[in-house]
């Protein structure tokens, strides 16, 4: 059985990643790719302008959560030197799924696991408060990363702390805390974490895409929707 098929078996019923009171019919897809002409004239690296675009998409679709972004090539990072490789290829391929919603929205665990590590990655353009869970299911060990959380989400955590499916892990942070992004959750799956602690690349170069696509499988396999 492939890992992707295995992930599908973990979701016999629709899984939630944000507040369980938000019905899945209130989720809508959003496109932050370089091919979206609607945002090409916008400075979406500005969290206020980015939020205005998100609000427009939510209003248009009568939704509360906008999601998407797996393997999406983006301009969202273009003004941040942390994503530039000294004149070489830029990191602009997004490795997880983003869930854009109001700051303070609960983030809940879709699959039972234990805390592998956590950290406040507080450099502009990074994740801000981040939690990584380890999952050991059947023959598979893998990890899930939750980025752009609130500072309160890191309180009373310790390595090895266990969370059951549907437990609240934390809440979404504000732009001041999540280091300059409109409020959202960056959710990413990782097969081999390579010694990282409280952090793991969430964006890669096009040259690295093949490796990361294998090591960071599509999180949409865990949910009832797929891009």
Describe what this molecule looks like in 3D:
There is one protein chain. With 227 residues, this protein is an alpha+beta fold. Helices cover 12% and strands 26% of the residues. It has 3 helices and 12 strands. Helix 2 links the parallel strand 1 and strand 2 (65-68). It is globular. The model has no long low-confidence stretch (mean pLDDT 90).
Proportion in helices? 10-25%
Separation of termini? 22 Å
The secondary structure category is alpha+beta
Low-pLDDT runs: none
- Rounded average pLDDT: 90
Element string (H = helix, E = strand): HEHEEEEEEEEEEEH
* Largest sheet descriptor: 8 strands, mixed
Q: How much strand? A: 25-35%
What are the SSEs and their pairings?
Elements lengths: L2 H7 L17 E3 L17 H14 L4 E4 L24 E2 L2 E4 L5 E3 L4 E9 L6 E10 L2 E8 L14 E2 L4 E4 L12 E7 L12 E2 L4 H7 L12
At a glance:
This protein is of the alpha+beta class. Helix content is 12%, strand content 26%.
Keywords summarizing the entry:
eight-stranded mixed β-sheet; 227 residues; two-stranded antiparallel ribbon; 3 helices; alpha+beta
